[in-house]
Amino acid sequence: MPALDPRIDAYIAGAADFAQPILTHIRAVVHAACPEVEETMKWSMPHFQYHGMLCAMASFKSHCAFSFWKGALLFPDAEKTSMGHLGKITSLGDLPSKKDLTGLIKQAMQLNDAGARVARPKAAPRALRVPADFMQALAANPAAQEVFEAGSASFKREYVDWIEEAKTAPTRQRRMDQSIAWLAEGKGRNWKYEQR
Q1: Number of structural domains the chain divides into
Q2: Residue 63 maps to a domain
Q3: Which of 75, 78, 125, 171 sits a CA distance of 20 to 30 A from 153?
Q4: So what's the pLDDT on residue 1?
Q5: Quick one: pLDDT band at residue 81, thresholds 50, 70, 90?
């Protein structure tokens, strides 16, 4: 007997009438294909885990979606959409046959067993734009400027972000003055919390 999460029972019961048989069917096929699967709720949607995340299902106002955590490996040529890997599901007829769906779930299980990982593109670091008034303040204090210039991108960004997040001109000026003083002493923005 599979371990069923009562939160998923409640999710299915709260879904639209058209969605309930779809979600119930998907859940049954997942459990039949993968008896060791564990149910959980993540991001307010039913998820199934098997040696890590396996797949998820969701119900919306007019359709359901079913997706695989490593869908990019199962469907390498498919475009990424918000409809899940099986497209917009509005009835049981929109799902693959039980045999085909079972095959997809077993392939996903094999990927998890093998420890396969989906390559995620790294986000390009955002460019650091140092405000002109801060650059002028740094230029007026060579010791502070030297420490700032020698710092890493994250070191600089902590100071710049802190100054830029000020809501008023007086607060911004106080933060710039404090930054220059700390930099002249060779300190990072969060020096109080750094391990010595």
Answers
A1: 2
A2: yes
A3: 171
A4: 47
A5: low
**CATH for 57:** 3.90.1150.200
Q: Kindly report the three-state secondary structure assignment for every residue of 144-195.
A: HHHHHHHCCHHHHHHHHHHHHCCCCHHHHHHHHHHHHHHHHCCCCCCHHHCC
Cβ–Cβ under 8 Å, residues 175 and 131: no
Please tell me whether residues 13 and 102 are part of one structural domain. Answer: yes
- 22 and 109 in a single domain? The answer is yes
What is the average pLDDT score of the chain? 89
Nearest Cα residue to 26 out of 44, 8, 14: 8
Residue 99 pLDDT grade (very low, low, confident, very high; cuts 50, 70, 90) = very high
Separation CA 115–CA 51 (nearest Å): 9
d(CA 11, CA 26): 13
User: Is pLDDT above 80 for 84?
Assistant: no
168 and 97 in one domain? no
